[in-house]
Write a structure and sequence with these properties.
Elements (H helix, E strand, L loop, with lengths): L2 H25 L5 H19 L2 H6 L4 H9 L1 H14 L5 H20 L2 H28 L7 H29 L8 H21 L24 H13 L10 H8 L3 H11 L5 H18 L8 H7 L5 H12 L3 H8 L7
Helix pairs in contact: 1-2, 1-9, 2-4, 2-5, 5-6, 5-7, 5-8, 6-7, 7-8, 8-9, 13-15, 13-16
Length: 349
């Protein structure tokens, strides 16, 4: 083994150890959805670090199929972790792990396919990897302003963004290999990047407070039973703006806009809504009032002929899709089902 290979073995071995340590750090306190998917992603990252280097891959012996399976489903597990951590959405186990399962099934099918089809199927695999990472990057960017958990907001760009960009780069490199271009010279750089990413992730997650992995719940969170005296005037002004002016009906209302209307710095309003009122993101805070108004409108016989889309727009939703998802998450029914159930026996129904 030449010196370069020995060095790469050491670097990759350190990265594997760091990812396994990160799995312990993420999973050490509880079993929320984000912690479970986080541990699985860390194991997949460690497996990927091994699987991409033949010397290490041969050394794992009987565990090689497990390492390979985790590595091939890694992008899907990263997607599950990122959406659990940042999305605050309750999802079924099937939905959460569907991308990872699909990637693994595609990898198995590729290995069992005739050689003439394998290159095309591997290329499809890498395109799916890249698509999942693009979705993560878009989510990180678009939902950043509405995130009310400070520790989670700080993680959005530096750690999760770096990991997503790495997988995008990897997808490009492996696609080039499928097309017949050698990329062996990039392997040491990939090993160093994996080690750097794993160590940076450990530093970030060990400093993270427990609120980072809070459990997303449907419905209205319970505020603190006792509100600090210094927050009471601010809460009174906030409620006045929301109830008197109904600014939550504005489609593009952001937390900065609301802070300006209330007359406080944005960071102070974030802290109030998160730490006193118990919301993890700004959209959920606004949707509490929007869904309450939607329930009333949909159950009103005088509005029985008003299209659901019109009600959604009146309440500040930009389109019907987000309204339907938010309504069903809060009530367990679609708006149409809620209206039908509420208007049974009504003369205007």
């Amino acid at each position: 083994m030449v010196n370069r290979e020995i060095l790469e073995v050491l670097v990759r071995g350190a990265a594997v150890g760091a990812f396994l340590g990160l799995a312990i750090a993420v999973g050490r306190a509880g079993a929320s959805a984000a912690r479970v998917t986080g541990v699985l992603f860390c194991l997949a990252a460690a497996a990927h670090t091994v699987a991409q280097f033949p010397v290490l891959c041969a050394a794992v012996g009987w565990a090689e199929p497990v390492v390979w399976a985790l590595s091939e489903s890694g992008a899907g597990l990263f997607w599950a972790f990122a959406t659990d951590l940042f999305g605050d959405r309750e999802r079924s186990v099937l939905t959460r792990f569907l991308p990872a399962g699909a990637l693994l099934a595609l990898s198995v099918s590729t290995r069992m396919s005739p050689p003439r089809l394998q290159s095309a199927l591997w290329l499809v695999h890498h395109i799916v990897d890249a698509g999942l990472m693009v979705h993560v990057l878009v989510m990180i960017a678009t939902e950043w302003r509405g995130d009310l958990v400070d520790s989670r907001r700080r993680l959005r760009g530096p750690i999760l963004g770096a990991a997503a960009l790495y997988v995008l780069l990897l997808a490009g490199v492996e696609s080039a290999e499928v097309l017949g271009r050698s990329t062996a010279a990039l392997s040491p750089f990939a090993a160093l990047l994996l080690l750097t990413l794993s160590l940076a992730s450990i530093a970030a997650f060990l400093r993270a407070d427990p609120a980072l992995f809070g459990i997303a719940r449907s419905g209205v969170p319970e505020p603190k039973t006792s509100i600090p005296a210094q927050d009471q005037p601010l809460l009174a002004r906030l409620n006045e703006v929301l109830e008197r002016d109904e600014v939550w009906r504005r489609e593009a209302l952001g937390i900065g806009d609301l802070a300006g209307l209330v007359g406080v710095p944005e960071h102070r309003l974030r802290k109030l809504i998160n730490q006193v009122l118990g919301y993890r993101n700004f959209a959920a805070f606004l949707n509490e009032r929007r869904i309450a108004a939607a329930r009333h409108a949909l159950a009103d016989p005088h509005h029985a002929r008003t299209p659901v889309s019109a009600i959604a727009y009146q309440l500040g939703f930009g389109s019907v899709g987000p309204f339907n998802r938010a309504f069903k998450s809060a009530t367990g029914l679609t708006p149409t089902e809620w209206r039908r159930k509420s208007l049974i026996g009504s003369p205007n129904s």
